[in-house]
Write a structure and sequence with these properties.
single chain, mainly alpha, elongated
Length: 143
């Protein structure tokens, strides 16, 4: 078997399970987080979580697939490991960036929900001249 084919097989054997692991982690912890945010709407929390996970899978696996090919010459085991280190490292970095992006989305949803849930106190009217309890203005000295 050609070394480049071995490199491709190892690349897929590493990156696809890595993608699944990150997606499951996002799903599990994202579900808990969203259920806390949408306490009264469990179905909405589940739906938002599933949509984010599906989007993560589509983008991640699409990137893994597009990044599969290489123009590098792979002649021996050293070349296989060097190619794999660049490819797997790049995929891990992209997955990390996507993970941070998902966390920011979750946090944005949480903040928006909490801002709407917090009842703001009614503004206190400011006293003005003629308002009961407002002190009378001091007389001006004569010029």
């Amino acid at each position: 078997m050609q070394p480049v084919v071995v490199a491709y097989a190892l690349y897929l054997a590493i990156t696809v399970p890595l993608t699944v692991l990150v997606a499951r982690t996002l799903s599990r912890h994202g579900k808990t987080f969203l259920e806390d945010v949408f306490q009264d709407k469990q179905a909405l929390a589940h739906s938002v979580n599933q949509l984010l996970v599906v989007g993560f899978y589509l983008v991640s696996l699409g990137f893994v697939t597009l990044f599969l090919t290489s123009d590098d010459t792979v002649l021996d085991a050293r070349d296989v490991f060097e190619m794999l280190s660049v490819k797997v490292g790049t995929v891990a970095l992209v997955l990390g960036v996507m993970h941070v992006g998902n966390v920011l989305v979750f946090n944005g949803i949480r903040r928006k929900h909490l801002n709407h849930a917090v009842a703001r106190p009614a503004p206190v009217p400011q006293p003005y001249p003629g308002y009961p309890g407002y002190p009378a203005p001091a007389p001006h000295p004569a010029p």
